[in-house]
């Protein structure tokens, strides 16, 4: 996969690369001008602060319109404990692993997940939802490590369904019959 295969992720990556960053650091979230975020990216954007040694999602700061359309419950201000209660331990571990990869490399990380849901009506084939995520590291100047540490993330996620009638994903909270397959983490060029 290259970012050119997904125009929303490409636009997010290009925007992130254009943000000012100190010589040895990454862009600071406090320098982010929300009005400058490309219009095609904003609906797919999640901005979150991260803390703790296990890189748990600590607080959701922004969830774009497409994100809130696909997920039943993802309110701004949600903390890691509340988010964890809405999903499965395996999914939370995947998110911790994704954030750990981001912190380790200090550069964007891509991953793709497939959700196989039961058909929308009796007799329908399974509905496959593809989630493509690009996680972009951001510093938070008030966090330990300042401009050189990853203190926030901009996560851009596009979701497509094999059945166009798909409504909100039924993974928050998880429902029976949802099979999730996470692909490997990649560092896009």
Notes on the structure:
Helices cover 22% and strands 26% of the residues. The chain is an alpha+beta fold and 189 residues long. Strands 2-1-5-4-3-6 form a 6-stranded antiparallel sheet, sandwiched between helices. The radius of gyration is 16 Å and the shape is globular. 30% of the residues are buried. The model has no long low-confidence stretch (mean pLDDT 81).
Concise synopsis of the structure shown:
The protein has about 190 residues and is of the alpha+beta class. About 20% of the residues lie in helices and about 25% in strands. It has a single domain (about 5-15, about 40-165), classed as Beta-Lactamase (2-Layer Sandwich), CATH 3.30.450.
From the 3D structure, determine the CATH topology.
Beta-Lactamase
Structural class: alpha+beta
Run of helices and strands: HEEHHHEEEE
Question: Mind telling me the CATH class?
Answer: Alpha Beta
Question: Could you give the topology of this structure?
Answer:
Blueprint: H1 7-17, E1 45-51, E2 56-63, H2 65-70, H3 80-86, H4 89-105, E3 109-117, E4 127-138, E5 152-161, E6 179-182
């Amino acid at each position: 996969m290259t970012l050119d295969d997904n125009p929303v992720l490409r636009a997010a990556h290009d925007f992130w690369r254009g943000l000012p960053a100190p010589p040895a650091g990454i862009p600071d979230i406090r320098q982010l001008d929300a009005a400058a975020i490309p219009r095609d990216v904003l609906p797919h954007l999640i901005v979150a602060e991260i803390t703790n040694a296990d890189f748990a999602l600590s607080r959701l700061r922004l969830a774009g319109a497409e994100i809130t359309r696909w997920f039943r419950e993802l309110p701004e201000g949600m903390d890691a404990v509340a988010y964890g209660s809405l999903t499965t331990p395996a999914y939370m571990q995947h998110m911790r692993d994704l954030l750990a990869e981001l912190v380790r490399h200090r550069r964007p990380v891509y991953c793709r997940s497939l959700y196989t849901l039961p058909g929308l009506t009796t007799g329908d084939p399974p509905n496959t939802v593809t989630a493509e995520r690009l996680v972009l590291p951001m510093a938070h100047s008030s966090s330990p490590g300042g401009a050189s540490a990853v203190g926030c993330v901009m996560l851009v996620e596009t979701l497509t369904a094999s059945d166009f009638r798909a409504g909100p994903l039924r993974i928050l909270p998880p429902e029976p019959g949802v099979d999730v397959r996470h692909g490997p983490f990649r560092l896009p060029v």
